[in-house]
Design goal:
Blueprint (H helix, E strand, L loop, with lengths): L6 H10 L4 H13 L8 H13 L5 H14 L6
């Protein structure tokens, strides 16, 4: 599974680094050309789950499955 990073934070660290210029340019190039993926923050899944449950728009099985998905990715750790 892909590991998600905050590319903007990484770019900032590269820019603030004390490394020589050529290393900083290479690091910035790698960050800028790295493949991206679509991701949904766990907080969004929690909000969706709560809204669906409150409005009675999810079955108990669906709720169980959604809770299992949230638990799997909560905290950024794969189980």
């Amino acid at each position: 599974m892909a590991r998600l990073i905050d590319a903007d934070a990484l770019k900032k660290r590269v820019k603030e680094s004390t490394a020589i210029r050529s290393v900083k340019v290479l690091a910035a190039t790698l960050v800028n050309t790295a493949p991206t993926i679509d991701a949904v923050p766990v907080s969004e899944l929690l909000s969706l789950r709560d809204n669906l449950y409150e409005d009675d728009l999810i079955t108990m099985r669906g709720l169980r499955d959604l809770n299992m998905l949230i638990a799997k990715y909560e905290g950024g750790k794969e189980k």
